[in-house]
Write a structure and sequence with these properties.
By secondary structure, the protein is mainly beta. It has 1 helix and 55 strands. Among the domains are: about 50-120, Thrombin, subunit H; about 430-600, no CATH class. The strands form 14 sheets. A 7-stranded antiparallel sheet has the order 16-17-18-19-20-21-22, with no helix packed on it. Strands 42, 43, 44, 45 and 52 form a 5-stranded antiparallel sheet that branches. The protein is globular.
């Protein structure tokens, strides 16, 4: 329960600071008894909680799912576009991306099909164009009716505006090359010129040419490809450009910085230092002097302030969080671009920024609070740091004492929803990643706080009633247990009834185990395993003879009733995997679970 003291404090917060939130009447998602609905800024229920899943409103419509499929409702709760999609994204520029099976489609606000897409990913449209990605991770551009404008032969699209698209292409000899093409398909910056092209500031780029006679040229250009400045000094690197100033560094043969300097586009040097100079933001740059000491300079190299450690947000929005003494307490002050302290408070750390610098999350111990851009405490450190804080359209949402709390722009609690004690099956519209972790006998791992210990082998008894002489999986659907402490699950047992130990392949002690559903006369994976790129993650866990692991699997619920089973892969590095299947049991899933991993969109 939320303490009366905290609630009383929150209700008095309107006297602590004033907020300038938008004055319209947006709706906010809330959850009650396992269902999702919408409230207004006063906490009044506008759309009752009847949905299994919902997204925020965008352009007057919100995607919702009652059973297995998504549709779109208006702010009154009326279904405008019928529920017919495995997944439905938000509307932007009058169109939304939806999926029927793996088929991506774009529809308008009347629910009419605009075009279909065969690409693995389509980004949001911008200025009438959208970036696309193929299943082989190659990129291109389409227009608003789905026509291919830039062919899918590029590794990366750096940036595009109304006229130009900047491209990255990797060749077979591992030589990277960068170029630019216009929206008529004409190459205006050939790939033979630059080995690196980076966005310096909106409207400007830094290009690095291929070396000729061990000399590399760095060029600052605008988006018309007009050259603003060039440097052809050996090992003299243009690092950044912003606020009319170039940050350049001189490096030695092993890439250590000898010195950095601030220059303008005429080549005039305004400041030089042996330390690193970070890019200008709001006409202020941070110079790292060493031993934790920093100074703040203006575009003319004048020192504005001296400080020690500085948090991530280095004058992004005209303020920075710095330490004024080199001690171990790590207390940060908030300063403006003149070096003046804002407010009287100090903070352990700054966790996030909201509404383009209007508000910041700060931490005090294990809790999160909100401070505005003037250094005033808007909400004291009462939010649970494990739950994300949201600030938008006049509502501050966070978690306090296990309850989700909504504060309005006067900082009064308009609604507080407590956890539903009822444990339910898992009702989702996407595939879950692998969750079955085990350990060999006697093995221990240092797990982060909140993680349950991984199961270790237990001795098999006659009461287990396993089949003799084999590695086997059994799902016990005759009893329910908790999965991840909040959903209904089943006991899942993996047993070795042979006379020898069996090594089973793992990634970070996670088994290659996924659930399958019988659909359209074949078995289909409805869970997936995340790719691990660290070689140290791959290994084995050993299950001794006459031993078993007992873990937990989720009970799913959905609109498709079908047969389910688990599939365990072993010998994954060999040309022929070994598969072990569990008993078949009855269950239900949603359509999106047949194909939709989170990385699909």
């Amino acid at each position: 329960m939320i303490s009366r003291k905290i609630l009383f404090l929150l209700m008095l917060l309107s006297g602590v600071a004033a907020c300038n939130f938008p004055k319209d009447k947006p709706l906010f998602i809330f959850t009650e008894h396992g269902k999702v609905g919408f409230i207004d800024q006063q906490g009044k229920i506008i759309i009752p909680p009847v949905y299994a899943e919902a997204d925020d409103f965008s352009e007057g419509l919100a995607a919702v799912r009652s059973d297995g499929y998504f549709g779109y409702i208006d702010p009154s709760g009326k279904m405008i576009i019928s529920a017919a999609y495995d997944r439905a994204e938000a509307f932007h520029n009058g169109m939304a991306l939806v999926y029927k099976g793996t088929q991506a489609q774009y529809i308008n606000k009347q629910g009419k099909l605009v075009f279909t897409s065969s690409y693995a990913k389509v980004d949001r449209f911008k200025n009438g164009y959208a970036q696309i990605t193929t299943t082989t991770q190659m990129m291109g551009v389409i227009d608003s009716i789905g026509h291919l404008v830039v062919d899918t032969i590029y590794n990366h699209l750096l940036y595009y505006n109304k006229n130009l698209i900047f491209l990255h292409k990797a060749y077979e000899n591992h030589r990277d090359s960068f170029g630019a093409i216009n929206l008529n398909g004409k190459m205006v910056l050939p790939f033979s010129r630059f080995q690196l092209l980076e966005i310096a500031e909106k409207g400007y780029f830094i290009g690095q040419t291929y070396p000729v006679n061990n000399r590399t040229i760095y060029m600052l250009m605008d988006t018309t490809l007009h050259e603003i400045y060039r440097s052809d000094t050996s090992n003299y690197t243009l690092e950044a450009y912003s606020n009319g100033r170039i940050i350049a560094t001189k490096r030695d043969s092993i890439n250590h910085i000898n010195y950095s300097q601030v220059i303008d586009t005429t080549g005039k040097i305004w400041y030089r230092d042996e330390g690193r100079i970070r890019p200008y933001k709001n006409n202020r740059a941070i110079v790292e002097k060493g031993e934790g000491e920093n100074i703040v300079i203006d575009p003319y190299g004048h020192t504005i302030d001296t400080c020690y450690n500085i948090e991530t947000y280095e004058f992004d929005y005209g303020v920075a969080f710095v330490q004024k003494s080199n001690n171990d307490e790590e207390e940060y002050w908030m300063i403006d671009t003149c070096g003046h302290r804002l407010g009287k408070h100090s903070f352990h750390s700054i966790k996030a920024v909201h509404l383009q610098g209007e508000y910041y999350e700060f931490s005090k111990g294990e809790f999160i609070g909100i401070v505005d851009k003037k250094g005033n405490i808007v909400v004291p450190a009462v939010f649970d740091s494990e739950y994300p804080v949201e600030i938008r359209d006049g509502i501050i949402k966070g978690k306090i004492n296990n309850a989700i709390v909504y504060l309005n722009y006067d900082h009064k609690v308009v609604r507080a929803t407590r956890p539903d004690p009822t444990k339910r099956p898992l009702n989702i519209s996407e595939q879950r990643s692998g969750y079955t972790y085990v350990l060999s006998a006697g093995k221990e791992l240092d797990l982060p706080p909140g993680f349950e210990p991984f199961p270790q082998p237990q001795p098999i008894t006659a009461a287990n009633n396993f089949r003799p002489g084999q590695l086997q999986i059994r799902v016990r659907t005759d009893t329910s247990i908790l999965f991840e402490a909040k959903y209904l699950g089943y006991p899942l047992l993996i047993a070795n009834t042979t006379t020898k130990p069996i090594d089973i392949d793992t990634q970070d002690s996670g088994l290659y185990l996924v659930l399958q559903a019988y659909y359209n006369n074949r078995w289909v994976d409805v869970e997936y395993l995340m790719d691990v790129i660290c070689n140290d993650s791959y290994g084995t866990e050993t299950l001794g003879p006459q031993q078993y692991w007992m873990t937990t699997c989720p009970q799913y619920t959905g609109s498709i009733k079908t047969d389910l089973r688990y599939k365990l892969a072993n010998n994954v590095d060999s040309t022929t995997h070994t598969y072990i299947f569990s008993n078949v049991f009855k269950g239900s899933i949603n359509p999106g679970q047949l194909w939709r991993e989170k990385k699909h969109y």
